């Protein structure tokens, strides 16, 4: 423990004593030699403007050519100088493992220089004015792990600089941020195949001007190729679609999902386009469809550009967080005038919105379908000048047709055959009175909307009843299919009608109704006569035949003591009361009479109540005497 402490103390002492005492250090520069003369730092931040770049380069060559540096120097840092070229003496320092050339004015890196520095691990040249990287520049640098070249003006990279996977086998970090690259070759793959799960390759190309993805290397990705492990950072570049990358670099193949699966599962590639002017439209739909259906993502997406993608807080939504339904493309090529054409890959349809577009006939041409499985969804509704349908070639690839609320007055047999196999046909709100004859011979699989039309429910259209009833499982608005004519059928539902409703003979119907009314009236009159006449003649009938037609015994089956209770005043007993009593009893009726049948000693009111209860009828002899009592 003590020996180790003594060693580091000695190293620190030697560094302190040697720092700043480098022979031949260029005037105005600070030269610091550390770690047993193996690390040299040259910084010329205060160099006089009078010192020429060539003079400084010559001075550095003189200093670095010393045998001690050539044999022992492992780390060299030359920064903040007016150098435009790397001093030739640097190329002789074969033991360097770190070379720092940051913040100079270098315009190019020399040929046949770094190839000699085979022990180089880190190469830095940030903040210079480099414009290109030529082929052969880094050949043979098998130990190089970090290449740090941001903040330059690099616009060209030679095809062979990074595309040879047998070179730069240890390279794990490449920083080319903030340069001027406008196009990119697929050399990233040849770098990433040298990575692995624990040590992927990071390629930083952010904030360049990359918008084109060229393929002069003739790269063609196949799912059996060596797996690649890496991170390709393209943020801040003017990239609008990720599919541009895949298509231009021949990564798409015939099955994009399989290709993406290979990239994410047989290897691990992550691509970042964060902070790019990204268009969230149908072009990249396959990418995000895969992204949402797989747990392993290969994409770090950017924010969607445009007002329609802003959330309630005013910030833009990330493309990876959007619903697949929102990835659409507005098409202008061959889109009819006053129409709006939108490709929606989420449901494999190309929508043509021509509602209220003042059409008098169907368009002859539409935007071509992007994929063979995509179908047209046609909205030609609310065009009152559209009075008839005609065949169009795009009907073959149409799934939905909406011609509701137009001026259609007829549908030809040919058009009916054309639209019969659609998924949905909407004829609502037109002027259709009938379908063409023999329409019932057409095999219709489409769902139908045919309500709110002025259907003519006459006998010649009666065939439509059974035909429409056979299509009832396909008709989506059966309650709205009603008759408009003739007037007797107005508002009657067609599907609930019968052939007799459509084909009735009006004269026979009227005669039948009249005959029924005559019979009904005659029956009522006869019933009235049969009741009124006997009632008017009831007394005569009774006197002659002793038959009272309205006399009936309401108390049949009840045990009553009397047939009648004769109630009268005692003062009317003789002669009136006695005469009525004698007359009634002579007919065989049992009569309760107060002078004879009331119980003596009991209140007269109680006797009257009992008499009423025990008699079938009560007869009162009304007189002044009776009323006064």
Gist?
It is built from 16 helices and 27 strands. The protein has 629 residues and is an alpha/beta fold.
Describe it.
Helix content is 25%, strand content 16%. Helix 8 (413-419) links the parallel strand 20 (398-402) and strand 21. The relative contact order is 0.03. It folds into five domains: 22-176, Leucine-rich repeat, LRR (right-handed beta-alpha superhelix) (Alpha-Beta Horseshoe); 181-324, Leucine-rich repeat, LRR (right-handed beta-alpha superhelix), CATH 3.80.10; 329-503, Leucine-rich repeat, LRR (right-handed beta-alpha superhelix), CATH 3.80.10; 506-545; 562-628, Toll/interleukin-1 receptor homology (TIR) domain (Rossmann fold), CATH 3.40.50.10140. It has 629 residues and is an alpha/beta fold. The protein starts with a helix and ends with a helix. The chain is built from 16 helices and 27 strands. The strands form six sheets. The chain has an eleven-stranded mixed β-sheet. It has a seven-stranded mixed β-sheet with strand order 16-17-18-19-20-21-22, with no helix packed on it.
């Amino acid at each position: 423990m003590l020996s180790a402490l003594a060693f580091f103390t000695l190293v620190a002492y030697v560094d302190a004593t040697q720092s700043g005492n480098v022979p031949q250090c260029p005037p105005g520069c600070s030269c610091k030699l550390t770690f047993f003369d193996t690390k040299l730092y040259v910084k010329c931040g205060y160099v006089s403007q009078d010192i020429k770049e060539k003079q400084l380069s010559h001075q550095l060559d003189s200093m670095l050519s010393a045998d001690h540096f050539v044999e022992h120097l492992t780390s060299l840092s030359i920064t903040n100088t007016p150098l435009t070229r790397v001093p030739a003496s640097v190329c002789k320092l074969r033991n360097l493992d770190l070379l720092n050339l940051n913040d100079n004015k270098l315009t190019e890196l020399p040929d046949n220089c770094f190839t000699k520095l085979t022990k180089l691990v880190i190469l830095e040249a940030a903040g210079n004015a480099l414009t290109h990287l030529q082929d052969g520049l880094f050949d043979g640098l098998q130990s190089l792990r970090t290449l740090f070249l941001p903040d330059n003006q690099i616009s060209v990279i030679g095809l062979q600089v990074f595309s040879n996977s047998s070179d730069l086998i240890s390279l794990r970090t490449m920083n080319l941020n903030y340069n001027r690259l406008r196009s990119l070759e697929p050399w990233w793959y040849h770098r990433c195949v040298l990575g692995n799960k624990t040590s992927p390759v990071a390629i930083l190309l952010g904030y360049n001007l990359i918008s084109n993805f060229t393929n002069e290397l003739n790269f063609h990705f196949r799912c059996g190729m060596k797996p690649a492990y890496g991170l390709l950072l393209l943020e801040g570049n003017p990239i609008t679609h990720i599919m541009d990358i895949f298509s231009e670099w021949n990564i798409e193949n015939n099955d994009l999902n399989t290709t993406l699966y290979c990239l994410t599962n047989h290897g691990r590639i992550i691509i970042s386009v964060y902070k790019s002017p990204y268009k969230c439209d149908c072009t990249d739909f396959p990418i995000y469809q895969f992204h949402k259906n797989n747990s392993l993502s290969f994409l770090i997406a950017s924010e969607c550009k445009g007002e329609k993608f802003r959330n309630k807080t005013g910030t833009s939504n990330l493309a990876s967080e959007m619903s697949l339904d929102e990835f659409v493309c507005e098409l202008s090529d061959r889109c009819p005038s006053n129409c709006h054409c939108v490709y929606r890959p989420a449901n494999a349809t190309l929508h043509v919105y021509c509602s209220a577009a003042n059409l008098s006939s169907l368009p002859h041409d539409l935007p071509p379908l992007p994929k063979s499985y995509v179908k047209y969804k046609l909205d030609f509704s609310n065009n009152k000048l559209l009075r008839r349908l005609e065949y169009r070639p795009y009907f073959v690839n149409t799934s939905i047709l909406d011609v509701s609320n137009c001026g259609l007055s007829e549908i030809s047999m040919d058009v009916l055959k054309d639209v019969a196999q659609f998924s949905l046909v909407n004829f609502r709100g037109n002027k259709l009175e009938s379908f063409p004859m023999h329409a019932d011979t057409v095999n219709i699989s489409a769902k139908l909307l045919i309500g709110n039309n002025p259907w003519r429910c006459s006998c010649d259209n009666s065939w439509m009843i059974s035909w429409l009833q056979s299509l009832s499982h396909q008709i989506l608005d059966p309650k709205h299919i009603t008759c408009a004519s003739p007037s007797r059928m107005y508002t009657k539902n067609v599907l609930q009608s019968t052939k007799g409703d459509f084909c009735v003979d009006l004269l026979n119907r009227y005669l039948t109704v009249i005959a029924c009314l005559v019979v009904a009236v005659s029956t009522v009159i006869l019933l009235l006569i049969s009741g009124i006449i006997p009632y008017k003649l009831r007394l005569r009938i009774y006197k002659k035949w002793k038959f009272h037609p309205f006399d009936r015994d309401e108390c049949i089956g009840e045990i009553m003591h009397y047939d009648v209770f004769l109630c009268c005043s005692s003062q009317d007993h003789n002669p009136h009361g006695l005469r009525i009593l004698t007359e009634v009893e002579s007919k065989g009726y049992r009569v309760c009479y107060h002078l004879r049948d009331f119980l003596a000693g009991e209140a007269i009111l109680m006797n009257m109540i009992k008499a009423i209860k025990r008699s079938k009828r009560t007869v009162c002899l009304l007189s002044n005497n009776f009323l006064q009592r």
